[in-house]
Amino acid sequence: MNAKMTPSSTSASNVPGKPAGDGLRFYGVWLLGIAALIVLPMIFSSGGSLTSFSLIGIAIVFALSYNILLGQTGLLSFGHAVHYGLGGFAACHMMNAVVAHKWPIPLPFIPLFGGLGGLVFAIIIGWVMTKRAGTVFAMISLGIGELVASSSLILRSVFGGEAGITTDRTALPKIFGWSFGPQVQVYYLIAFWLVLSAIAMYALTRTPLGRISNAVRDNPERVQFIGYDPHVVRYLAFCFAGFFAGVAGGLAAINFEIANSAYLGAIQSGLVLFSTFIGGTAYFFGPILGAILVTYLQLGLTSVTSVWQLYFGIIFIGIVMFSPGGIAGLLMMHRPLVRAGTLLTVIPSYFVAIVPTLALACGVILTIETVARFSGGETINLFGVGFKPQSPVTWIVALVLLVGGGFVARLSWGRIAEAWDRAATVARDRGYLA
Amino acid sequence: MTAAIEVLAVEKRFGNVGIIRDLNLSVAQGERHAIIGPNGAGKSTTFNLISGHIKPTSGEVKLNGEVISGLQPFEINRRGLSRSFQVTNVFARMSVWENVRCAVLWATGHRYAFWKNVDSLPEVRERTAKILDDIHLTHRRDVPAGLLTYAEQRELEIGITIASGATVVMLDEPTAGMSNAETERAVALIRRLTEGKTLVIVEHDMSVVFGLADRISVLVYGHIIASGTPEEIRRDPKVKEAYLGEEAH
């Protein structure tokens, strides 16, 4: 697509002098989100969906915390799960201590201690880590991640070795008569902390520190010549990210009633990077979308296919190559068109592209699954149609879908690009595109 | 009165290569001082040495009588010296408004505050608006800096530089690559915005230099061969030989 995205800083639209309607809409979006969080378990009340919602809530807090580093400050970390995991362990130890000493601390306060766990480690390790940005930071974060993950298996007294540290969330003092035994109560606890953390992290982007973090992301050299030490800025951002990752870890500890070495590892660090990037780092809501999608895919794909990680990889590569702004970037590309009223000229080309693109996707899936299941011989169930991986019919269908679908899909994408160019030109002429 | 900037016997060597040799320079308070010299003479290096971007191998740099050589760039900036860059050096993904506002924040005392809403700081807002007005970019305030035209980016560069209200302003080739009309506009802008401040400017365009500067220093091979009023510099035989002789127009 030739239409250029305009990646502004996270909330560039919130400059003073904005029309009053923007403020209303802004609070409207937040209130709508909160309302949705309250209503969701009433509509989808099965145990499975409550568990999914809980996991998604945790993933959102974690991804938002990661975006303080990646999107806001331009720090690519490969070890963010360290703070998440340490937050989880801190929360577990705290819960066990509360029970053992009969402290009057009810469960809803526990994530705060998770956050402190993540924060303390960030304070200790962060100063050295954030001395440099870029590759140096990325490499150190990878090293620290591995170091802590392997220590967690060695230092048994703190991390409980392979088994981890278990806890019982229902043994803590009750609040409002809630025992937090039922998943729905845990869900509401997570939702509460999600709202609190999201508001706090959003507010952070609108403080002097938040804005200077953006400046450090864009141009650390220049920041030095407007009076700021980029090292201090990176360090503070790192500490905030560590705190909120710890909160997420604490929530996870409450949800699973266990903290173990898997919390801290490279896979967890990779997942959060993945969610944040897929969602889009340039907008505050990007990581939220990413966390929802990735958690759902993770839950959904694992039950359908054994090679779900392969699909993750394909999605990730696709996003990196075709939409570096992530899902949020794709969505926000449309904003100038909506404002200029030219969006409707683009929509038809999307509909035209749906069928061939789906055919191509089916071709890819069929090919992957044929290869994956060839030796086992399990049937591939694609939208209700069964395919035998060893049958040449399957291979031919896969090939036809791949080649034919790919060919037509490319044509249809070309038409999208053309429609886009026309719509964007009109929007630009009307003054809606920078 | 102490000089605004004093460079005392500064040397800068990269390995065995001496880029700056025995550099002495004094810029009085409120003076507009131009540094000229042929390509590769070390003008930008001199800027980098004074602003803390690189550290001198030996010698001293003083700002208002206080030694600043060896300090970090942000420490020097906090002491009231601000500089621009020859190659545009802005915050590309942030809006014009955000660019200038970031440059205002430290000077207005908000530092690393994470407990204040940046949009509800009246003095920051007023100062930012004033500077945008000064550099004629108010109508482009919401545009990401990376999407500005070249001349606009140069103006934004100047805006960021003066935003902190520094008393000593250093501009590195502010009109490089501009058309004649743009240059004229930029010179008027610089003249107005640095009123009552000390200005050090590196410039290739001789009409700009002789029109703007109170004093001129000529840098050749890392050494200042002459320093004086435009009239003195014009008459100086060494300058004629080393520099103006080749490029005078």
Topology:
The complex is a heterodimer of chains A (434) and B (249).
Chain A: H1 20-43, H2 47-73, H3 81-101, H4 110-129, H5 134-154, H6 156-159, E1 165-166, H7 183-205, H8 208-218, H9 220-223, H10 230-256, E2 258-259, H11 266-279, H12 286-304, H13 308-322, H14 326-333, H15 335-340, H16 347-373, E3 380-382, E4 385-387, H17 392-429
Antiparallel strand pairs in A: 1-2, 3-4
Helix pairs in contact in A: 1-7, 2-7, 2-10, 2-11, 2-12, 3-4, 3-10, 4-10, 7-10, 8-10, 11-12, 12-14, 16-17
Chain B: E1 5-14, E2 17-27, E3 32-36, H1 43-51, E4 58-63, E5 66-67, H2 73-78, E6 81-83, H3 96-105, H4 122-134, H5 150-163, E7 168-172, H6 180-193, E8 198-202, H7 206-212, E9 215-220, E10 223-228, H8 230-235, H9 237-247
Helix pairs in contact in B: 3-4, 3-5, 4-5, 5-6
Quick recap of the structure?
The complex is a heterodimer of chains A (434) and B (249). Chain A is an all-alpha fold and 434 residues long.
The span between the termini of chain B is 37 Å
Please provide the ordered H/E string of secondary-structure elements of chain A: HHHHHHEHHHHEHHHHHHEEH
Structural class of chain B: alpha/beta
Helix amount of chain B: 25-40%
What portion of the residues of chain A fall into strands of 2 or more residues? under 5%
Helical element count of chain A?
17
Q: Percent of residues of chain B in beta strands?
A: 15-25%
Task: Provide the succession of SSEs of chain B.
Answer: EEEHEEHEHHHEHEHEEHH
Largest β sheet strand count, sense and barrel closure of chain B: 6 strands, mixed
Give, in spatial order, the strands making up the sheet with the most strands of chain B: 6-7-8-3-9-10
Number of strands of chain B: 10
Quick one: overall form of chain B?
A: globular
Q: Which radius of gyration of chain B do the C-alpha atoms yield?
A: 18 Å
Q: Quick check: average pLDDT of chain B? A: 93
Low-confidence parts of chain A lasting 5 or more residues at pLDDT below 50? 1-18
| Share of residues in helices of chain A | over 70%
* Oligomeric category: heterodimer
Low-confidence stretches of chain B: none
- Arithmetic mean of pLDDT of chain A: 91
